[in-house]
Amino acid sequence: MSENPVPPPLSGQVGPPVTEGPDVRLDEDGGLPWRPVSPRLAALRTVAVSLWFALPVVAAAALAVLVWSWFWVAVVVLVLLLGWLLWVVRRQVPAISWAELDEELVIRRGLAFRSLVSVPYGRLQYVDVQSGPLARRFGLAEVELHTASPSSGGAIPGLPLAEAEALRTRLAARGESQRAGL
Amino acid sequence: MSEGPDAAPDPPGVDPDEGWQHFHPLSPLLRGGVAFVAVVGYVGSQQLDRIVGGGADDPTEGHRLLAVGIVALVLLAIIAGSWVTWRVSRFRLGPAMLELRTGVLFRQHRQVHFDRIQAVDLGRPVLARLTGLSEVVVQSAGGRDSTLRLSFLTDARAREVREQLMALAGRTDEATWAPGVPSSHGSVPGDPAATSVTAGPGPVPTGHEVLRVPNARLVQSTLYHGSFGFLVLAVPVLVGGLLLGVGELVGWLVPMVLGIGGRHLGSLVRNANFTLHHQGDRLLVRHGLTDLRSTSVPLHRIQAAELVQPVLWRFPGWWQVRVNVAGAGSEDGPTESLLLPVGTREEALAVLGLVRPGIPAPLAVAALEGEGPDHGFTVAPSRVRPVDPLSWRRRGYAVTQDCVLVRAGALRRRLQVVPHARVQSLTLDQGPLQRRLGVATVDLVSTPGPVRARVHHLGTPDAQRLVREQIVRSGRARQRV
Question: Is A152–B471 a contact, with Cβ atoms under 8 angstroms apart?
Answer without folding.
Answer: no
